[in-house]
Amino acid sequence: QAGVLDSYVWHTANAAGNDPPVCALEPNPWGLYDMHGYLWEFTADDWHDSYEDAPTDGSAWRDDREASARVVVRGGSWKDPSPRLRSAARRPFPKDARDDAVGFRCVLAKVQ
Prior knowledge:
The chain is mainly beta. Helix content is 4%, strand content 17%. Strands 3-2-1-4 form a 4-stranded mixed β-sheet, with no helix packed on it.
């Protein structure tokens, strides 16, 4: 699997470090670059062990407690092996933690 993904995503087998140039790999079928791998993406959801009682309207799943300690990060990073790089991959991440493999993806839209 890693051989196919090497052209599209940064993972442990092809990332020399944590600062690759933007658009160095191939775009996905929709023309978007760097959409998998490289970093775990923050979400607005607080961590829950399962999807039981999750919102079905697309809204963020926040705890009633103001001080929930963990959020959900998704997708895998350059520190992970290629099988981990899936949009369905998720894990808890402490709200006050820092990691060079966790962040946000920025997208620049082309105006038509």
